Amino acid sequence: MEQIGHWIDGKRVAGTSGRMADVYNPATGEVQAQVALASTAEIEAAVASAAQAQKAWGATNPQRRARVMMEMVRLINRDMDKLAEAISREHGKTFPDAKGDVQRGLEVIEFCIGAPHLLKGEFTDSAGPGIDMYSMRQPLGVVAGITPFNFPAMIPLWKLGPALVSGNAMILKPSERDPSCPMMLAELLQEAGLPDGVFQVINGDKEAVDAILDSPTIQAVGFVGSTPIAQYIYERAAQTGKRAQCFGGAKNHMIIMPDADMDQAADALVGAGYGAAGERCMAISVAVPVGEETADRLIEKLVPRIEALKVGPYTAGNDVDFGPVVTAAAKANILRLVETGVAQGAELVVDGRDFSLQGYENGFFVGAHLFDRVTPDMDIYKTEIFGPVLSTVRAASYEEAIGLAMDHEYGNGTAIFTRDGDAARDFANRINIGMVGINVPIPVPLAYHTFGGWKRSGFGDLNQHGPDAFRFYTRTKTVTSRWPSGIKDGAAFNFKAMD
Ligand code: NAD
Asked: Which CATH code fits 252-438?
């Protein structure tokens, strides 16, 4: 069986901890590989050599660092299918969806080619007599990325691109569920010209994460995953004075106004609710039609669309709408939550509980579910299900609908479907959620804007990618410089204003 180790100092190495985890093929339920789980000692050694390698890399001019990203763009495009296949095999998502995962990461690498411009700093000529003032953006040193299973290409690329091009070394601790793609990205970075040791992939679980958090050398941690772990990492990273940006879970609401184009809204909900089996932090998991009549029309349009969804393995190519969920435990958790929905009185309008796929009976497939008449006190409303389950909460008014989204503990994404510009504007202005779609169900910002949720979907004060990423992965040093002949007049001991 394939053994996946770590990527340290420019090569694949076996783990030495003696601990391994199984990597499944979610479509068949079979264990297809084993991944090493790093010990604290392995993390410490990898961090020490990254710190060594960072010195020369940080001193390399930004244009040369950007050229590594330029080459990386070419290599990712060259290997797009290989990367996507590795993702589908371990994650279970469809092949086109896996290519989208790579593509949205690639776009951030394209953005990073502009690093010399983004790292330019600020300059004030003649801030005082003979005095210039300038601010530089310098790398932090060694930083870490800790990433989730659901986007094994996109999120590592969102982290490694800005971190490396800013002159840092990075320790990436990807999800132990689908480790192959991050290892392949490390190989591509080497081929693109990144010096060995600047990027290390250390596979592992809590022990590796805790070693990262406690390392005095690591200066910053970028995390994406579930909310309890995001909060834990944010708090523990702060104890050693690290910068931390930790993005968590979600419960994204889509509000459907009575004037919305109902076919468009239903199509959007089906794609955003069931794509990738609902395992997206920007998936829509709550539909909020405004008014009983809107709700009835919406449900009528949704049911046949959901019943027609094709669920299957990625090997079926374009013939499949979504694949299995990632593990048997994830499947059991989704089905458990569906039972609580039924028990607590929600109406299960599309029931996927008995779904089974011939030839793939041991795979982690979950059929599509649609609930109607869900209320805010139910577990299926409060909890992130992370599966193909859409809940409908009927709201009597626009105010009630916006209030639901605002009162929910999560604040990652949201959307409104309407033809009324006034309602859309009001919604965008008032909502306390980080990413908003207007007639767009999954409003993931492009690489040159920033991505981040509010409330318990994000801990820390800067977003991912866009200009924020360059702020997060650099620190500012401000120099006040004076070269006047007047220095001969003698030292000044007062704290001078710039006159
Ligand atoms: P997870 O929290 O289980 O794991 C994320 C990372 O944390 C992994 O690398 C994992 O090894 C590590 N980890 C897990 N348990 C740990 C522990 N006890 N101590 C230390 N480290 C630990 O998340 P997941 O299941 O891989 O990913 C799904 C979650 O990620 C969902 O909640 C989803 O909404 C969220 N997500 C959020 C965003 C966003 O941008 N907000 C994007 C993608 C996914």
From this structure: 3.40.309.10
